[in-house]
Amino acid sequence: MSINDATNVASAAALSSVSSVKKVTKTLSNNILVKAISQLRRKCYKCYYAKSYDQLPIDDICELNSDLIAYNSGPDDGINDISLIPQKKLNSHLSQPLTNENNLDDKKIISECYESFHKLGINQWKNYHHRSYGIACSLYENNITNNTTVGDPIADVYAIMTRKNNSILLLADGVNWGPRSRLAARCAVRASMNHLNKFLFTKKIQTTHDIFKIMCRSFDAAQEFILQRKGFMTTLCCSVVVKLKDATPNSSALWAVCTLSIGDSTAYVFNKNKGVFELTFGARNLNNDRDMRNVGGALGGVYGNKPDVSNLNYSVMYIKENDIVFLVSDGVSDNLDPIVSQTAKKRANLSSSSSQSHAELHNGCQLPEMSPYERYVCSLAHMNEILLRNNTLNETLSAQETCASMIEHVMKLTAQKRDLLEKGIVEASKISDNEERAKFQAELREKSMKLRGKLDHASIVAYEVGLL
Fold this sequence. Notes:
Layout: H1 3-15, H2 18-29, H3 32-42, E1 47-50, E2 68-74, H4 100-113, H5 116-119, E3 126-127, E4 132-138, E5 142-143, E6 148-149, E7 156-163, E8 166-173, H6 179-199, H7 208-228, E9 233-234, E10 236-243, E11 255-262, E12 266-271, E13 275-278, E14 298-303, E15 306-308, E16 313-319, E17 324-328, H8 330-333, E18 345-346, H9 353-359, E19 361-362, E20 365-366, E21 369-370, H10 372-389, H11 399-413, H12 415-429, H13 434-449, E22 457-464
Parallel strand pairs: 18-21
Antiparallel strand pairs: 1-16, 2-3, 2-7, 4-22, 5-6, 7-8, 8-10, 9-14, 10-11, 11-16, 12-13, 12-17, 14-15, 17-22, 19-20
Organism: Brachionus calyciflorus
InterPro entries: PP2C-like_domain, PPM-type-like_dom_sf, PPM-type_phosphatase-like_dom
Protein name: PPM-type phosphatase domain-containing protein
């Protein structure tokens, strides 16, 4: 089997009907898929990752152009109506404590950093561009009896600011539901973007390590703002795409994407000829099953006034013009998992009896078993196939099309489950007896668990690499 054939098998396993899945079971069980994809990835983009940016390669970058091309945030008004509170001091939650010499500069930074957007004339975060785009939505069911959506307000928040030769992408996913979760996400993105916008565009920023230092301090700013506004907890993922001065010893590419993340929001690069590559895989062990209810790390008052930085992850990847860099919340990434989409089942010795009963048979067909790493590889191939569907040989996929393709896919994947629950809400409202209603609702939940997909808030923000 060729490498390209293996890629196609992975995509087929994740996307095809159950009858098609049955045909590739033998291929998957022989691990040809994983070996072939691993071989393919060795020939393509490499992701350098570490717990500290000083362990990553350092490269000279072009001077960052400060002229804005596009900026947008969502859902709804996004970070538009979250006003920053001036800070007397920026505590070091993630970054190294400041020296006395730098402390004087830090005081100046705090006074200058306050609301840097207003100086650029940004009043509404709605300046869209097809190469710089984002979408956020809810996959939860609508309650037509009271005209609400379960899980509202949407606790995901994204923002993107794109200039001629660089772009800043941010995405946060508030932990659990409710206004305070959404507030935490909005505070994190607002404060981090404000800090990055203010301090990246100076002559002092000359290397990728300089960028990481500012990114780290921006997460400190996010943590402080969450605590000040009494938000709950949130994940935060940030990617800064920059143009390099020269091809690096590690790659012939002339662009780099620097990424910092806490939690389970993930970042990727898509190249139509090479596939999808994750920027945040260093935040977890790919050989272990991931508990989708555990975000792994978060900003906010996790331990008193301290964040949980357990899965803090820095990474850099060298990429090329017309590649797509995109960040997603777990409402998107989890629905690409073959177990969640019910195109595979967990290995028998790794799964619980309940999860086996839900995924083992689908329309009477046996599904292939997958290890955690096989699931991960298949998820990437699945993502790649979705994006290739909307890509032509002579045209590049835009950031806007990337966002639309991914959101459309997860909406369709979860449609049957959402429809069942929406009809159930109406039926339950007609049952007057409390015990009968409770029994009906319990049976409804059990039925929904057997359907594919995961209902959640789903967000994506994307940038097409290149000069604008």
